[in-house]
Structure formats: structure tokens, C-alpha cells
Design goal:
Polyamine Oxidase, Chain A, domain 2, globular, 23% strand, seven-stranded mixed sheet, 3 domains, FAD/NAD(P)-binding domain
Length: 463
């Protein structure tokens, strides 16, 4: 066992996985998590003594990396269910496949929209092939221009622009094309290929492709079981995990090591670290650095914002609320509905069901400040209109909130992110990791993969 100690800020899936791997490699790790539960966005809250299991939005585990497959299989054993992907989009009164495919446009849109979509899409492709788009500076083009150039003006107008602005609550002109996560990016031509071939050759990189060719897994007691089991491995191997522990200062000492100050149970604890890994929001890290970060770094960090997420869980005894596992919506105050009974029936007491109603928002805005009943009143007129659930079918409500759910890739985010990353790079014993820490829109399996790589890198440096 090495006497080198790594302190990890944040006990989400990234922080826990890097701790797990470092413990395997013989290092001492200590994880500081500000919440009373581990897992972060991949965590599960269990009110009423565990009778209900509430995720931060319904999701499942999927991966094609053999090492991750083996680790998850070892972690969960038989404590999982497997199912096939089933999701829809609700657009202009029609349920379409998710993600939007060429088949949807050709067969499910109104004839006028289908024709306009095809014509403008073909025109956009011809312009691209002719080289007209070469003159567009990819660093300054906004999401609206990008969507028009790639999918045609009509599809951009009726789907991509309204969906994006409805979710992010920000005009497309202020967003980078990189607002679309790499894991879900799927161009229209590829969807045509998938429509006719029904298979994907080579590595399946997009979420859509991976869902088509790989098994989907979901733990029987909520998605957070993955993070909780990893945490147990860390503890069993001699690591430490502090919960309800808020990091308040990360002080660089003259010897290149760190003093991490943590507030826990009204006490301030000092932790000495040979290396620090941060998975927490970038502005938080920058503001707690000592010596103080340069002004340009603080200003850049403050411009790296995060979209917030609220999930309202509506408990009911009514079954078959949706025809699919989950549905994405345009023109609704919520952006997604999911029927949890279609994920796993052990997330709530027998005879019951839960509808997860997801609201994207900005921390401190009107929606963020709503309580459970306010959120229900906001959603219920639409839920009743769409024949999903009636007021008298609502038995109880729960809510979970995540203040830093999605990195917002504003038009100029790359410049600000690079300024921050260059600053981190100047610190020999400091790394950032994960969706929140690296400002990357990635899935749990990708978080784990990056954590394992980073752990090996740190081990090689500290040995």
C-alpha cells in the first residue's frame, strides 16, 4: 500500500470510480461528497425508509467497453433487470421515434411538413457538398445556423430549434452546436442507413447506436445502486467516503501538495493530499482555490454555467400511463415523462406506479423555486389533456433537484473552458474529471471509463 493520498471532490460516479481504481492500485483515497447520498446525478434518493426509489431522471446503464461490462457485472450480479429501449418524441400532436429519424419525417409528419423537410434537407446537403459551408467558422456558428446547415431550414424550424430552446431555456443564437452531446449526436444520413440496414457496423459510438446493439441494464433498487456498490468497494478496500461534507478550500502548499479544508457537521476538517481530483462544478473549484485564481480564470469559470433539473415523482395506482418507457415533449412545461413501472416494479410498493415528470430550469428561477404541489399544478393541465393522469389519480408527490445537471455550452464556451483547463494544467497534482468537473455531456459508462484512465495516469505519476 502506497503512503500517497488522493482527495476526491465529489462522490458521483466519476469520483467513486477513480477512488475505486486508485484503491486497487494501492493508494489511499478520501472522497468528499456534499450530499447525504453518493452517486450525484447517478444517485437514488429513497424517502419513507426506502419504500420509494427516486432517480435524477430515469436512465439505464449501457456500455460496449469490456472492462466496464466486467466491472458492472461483478458489482451488480443478478440485482438488475434487462429490457429493450423504448422511447418517443411528441411533436405536433404525433408520437415519433426517439431520436428523430428519417423514417419519422417521411411517414409520420404531415405531408406538407414531410415534403418541406425533405426538400430543404436535400438542399442543405447539396450546399454542403458544393463547399458553401466551408466558409462558416465552426468556432462561431451558433446552434441554429448549425441545425439549418445540417438538417435544412424546415426541420430546424419545426423541431431542432424549438426543442433546443425549450430544453435549455436559451435562444439558439447563444448556444454552440456542441450543446448536443457526442453520445446522442446522430445525423440524418446515418438514420437513413440505420432505417434500411437495421444494424450498425463497427463501434457503436452514439447513444442511439449503442441502445440498438447493446443490452440495457437497470438496478432493481434504483440507478444509484451502481454508485452505492462502488462506494462499498472503496470502503472495503480501506478508502474513506465523507458524506454531508462540503469542500470550502483547496490550498496549494509550497511542496506542491494540497491542504483540503472540509466543512462537515459544523466542524472544519483539514485533509492533506498528494493529489486532488475535482468532479465538482468548475466555478466552485476556482473560487475555493488558494492562492486565489487569476482574475481571467475566475471570469471564465463564472461564464461556464449549468442547467438545473427537477424531477417530480407522481405516485399513483394507475398502470399503463404511457405507451413507452419515456417520452420527450415540445411545447410542454416539462421536457420528459417516464413511467417507472416500465423500468422496474420494485422502485415503489406493490400495486403502485410512479410517473417521473422532468423540468429543466435555471437555478433560482421560477420553476426552481416551486414546491411539489406548484410543479404538479404547472404540469397537470397538460397531463390531463394528453390523457396521461387525472388529478384524482394522484396519491402523493416527491421531488428531487440537481442544481448542476447539464453543462451549458454557450457560443463562447470553448474559450472559457480552455482558459480554465490551461490553469488546471499548470498544477502538477490537480485533475478535473466527469460531466460536471470537465464540462462534458457524457453518460455514466463514459464517466467510468475516463475515471479508470485518469486513475492509472495518477498512479504512474505518484509511484
Amino acid at each position: 500500500m502506497s503512503n500517497k493520498k488522493i482527495v476526491i471532490l465529489g462522490g458521483g460516479i466519476s469520483g467513486l470510480t477513480v477512488a475505486w481504481r486508485l484503491q486497487e492500485l494501492g493508494f489511499q483515497t478520501e472522497v468528499c461528497e456534499s450530499n447525504e447520498f453518493v452517486g450525484g446525478l447517478a444517485g437514488t434518493v429513497r424517502p419513507e425508509d426506502g419504500r420509494y426509489c427516486l432517480d435524477f431522471g430515469p436512465h439505464f446503464f449501457i456500455t460496449q467497453k469490456q472492462e466496464i461490462v466486467e466491472r458492472i457485472t461483478d458489482l451488480l450480479a443478478d440485482d438488475v433487470v434487462s429490457f429493450e429501449r423504448s422511447a418517443q418524441l411528441y411533436v405536433q400532436g404525433r408520437f415519433l421515434d426517439y431520436p428523430l429519424s428519417a423514417k419519422n419525417v417521411l411517414l409520420n409528419f404531415p405531408l406538407s411538413d414531410a415534403i418541406a423537410s425533405i426538400i430543404t434537407f436535400v438542399w442543405a446537403q447539396l450546399k454542403s457538398a458544393a463547399g458553401y459551408l466551408i466558409r462558416i467558422d465552426s468556432k462561431t456558428v451558433n446552434f441554429g445556423d448549425w441545425a439549418t446547415a445540417n438538417f435544412g431550414n424546415h426541420l430546424a424550424k419545426i423541431f431542432f430549434r424549438p426543442y433546443t430552446e425549450g430544453f435549455w431555456k436559451i435562444p439558439c443564437e447563444n448556444l454552440s452546436p456542441e450543446i448536443i452531446p457526442t453520445s446522442t449526436r446522430l445525423n440524418f444520413m446515418k438514420s437513413l442507413k440505420m432505417m434500411f440496414l437495421k444494424k450498425v457496423s463497427g463501434p457503436a459510438k452514439s447513444l442511439t447506436e449503442r441502445e440498438l446493439v447493446l443490452p440495457l441494464r437497470y438496478p432493481k433498487r434504483g440507478y444509484g445502486v451502481i454508485a452505492e456498490t462502488i462506494a462499498n468497494r472503496v470502503l472495503n478496500m480501506g478508502g474513506f467516503i465523507r458524506q454531508n461534507a462540503r469542500v470550502v478550500k483547496v490550498e496549494l502548499r509550497k511542496d506542491g501538495k494540497y491542504l483540503v479544508k472540509v466543512s462537515q457537521d459544523d466542524n472544519e476538517i483539514e485533509l492533506n493530499a498528494d493529489h486532488v481530483v475535482s468532479t465538482i462544478p468548475i466555478p466552485n473549484l476556482v473560487n475555493m482555490m488558494s492562492p486565489e485564481s487569476p482574475l481571467i480564470v475566475r471570469q471564465s469559470a463564472d461564464k461556464l454555467g449549468y442547467l438545473s433539473l427537477i424531477v417530480l415523482y407522481v405516485v399513483t395506482t394507475t398502470k399503463d400511463l404511457l405507451d413507452t418507457s419515456y417520452v420527450y415533449y415540445l411545447d410542454r412545461p416539462y421536457h420528459r415523462l417516464a413511467e417507472m413501472d416500465k423500468f422496474c416494479d420494485s422502485l415503489f410498493p406493490a400495486g403502485e406506479n410512479m410517473l417521473a415528470v422532468e423540468f429543466s430550469c435555471h437555478r433560482g428561477d421560477e420553476i426552481w423555486n416551486m414546491n411539489e404541489q406548484d410543479l404538479l399544478e404547472l404540469a397537470l393541465p397538460h397531463l390531463e389533456h394528453d390523457n396521461i393522469i387525472l388529478r384524482n389519480e394522484v396519491d402523493k408527490l416527491f421531488v428531487v433537484r440537481a442544481g448542476h445537471a447539464y453543462p451549458i455550452r454557450y457560443l463562447d464556451f470553448r474559450k472559457n473552458l480552455d482558459t480554465f483547463l490551461n490553469y488546471v494544467g499548470e498544477h502538477n497534482n490537480l485533475d478535473v474529471l466527469g460531466r460536471t468537473g470537465e464540462y462534458m455531456y457524457i453518460d455514466s459508462d463514459q464517466c467510468m471509463e475516463r475515471a479508470l484512465v485518469l486513475a492509472d495516469k495518477i498512479a504512474a505519476k505518484l509511484h
